[in-house]
Amino acid sequence: MHRMLSREQFSQIGVKMKKIGMVVFIFAALVAILEYLGIFPAWRASLAHKESRIIDQSVTSNNQSGGITAHTILTQRPERHFDTGLRAQIMKALPARKEKILVQTIINDSEAYQFGAEIANFLRSDGWDVDIGYAIWNPPFKGQRLLKNENGILTIQIGGR
């Protein structure tokens, strides 16, 4: 059986609800003022301390195909650069007599051209007569190769990565 509230009881409940609402409002306003002033309550400071202990669990994936990786995904291999190891290989493969060399890089590949330009600049500084240009190979290849072209000119070909 349900009991009906009298008008006076209903009015008393309304007054109590208003008082509770006013206390909540004053508390929220006080917290907002303290935060604005940069004064944080103790519970807020302990919460901030817990947030600062989060460990960075970043993951980097190179050349991944399939699966799930969080954070950073790198889909390209790093750029090639002319280093001392490659310098020694080229100098060993080249004839002692300095002649004309053609450096060809695969067309529309700025990384291959930049790599070929590094090789060409080194050879020029060593006294070789060097030209650099683009080429198309069918099928395309990866890496680099040294050969003599149909005109007998020493050619360094730079393919894709």
Structural class based on helices, strands and sheet pairing: alpha/beta
Low-pLDDT stretches are none
Shape: rod-shaped
Number of strands: 6
Helix and strand topology:
Elements: H1 7-36, H2 42-52, E1 60-62, E2 72-74, H3 84-93, E3 100-106, H4 110-125, E4 129-135, E5 144-148, E6 154-158
Parallel strand pairs: 1-2, 3-4, 3-6
Antiparallel strand pairs: 5-6
Can you put this structure into words, describing what you see?
With 161 residues, the protein is of the alpha/beta class. It has a four-stranded mixed beta sheet with strand order 4-3-6-5, with helices on one face. Strands 1-2 form a two-stranded parallel ribbon. The model has no long low-confidence stretch (mean pLDDT 81). The protein is built from four helices and six strands.
Short description:
With 161 residues, this protein is of the alpha/beta class. The chain has 2 domains: 1-48; 84-158.
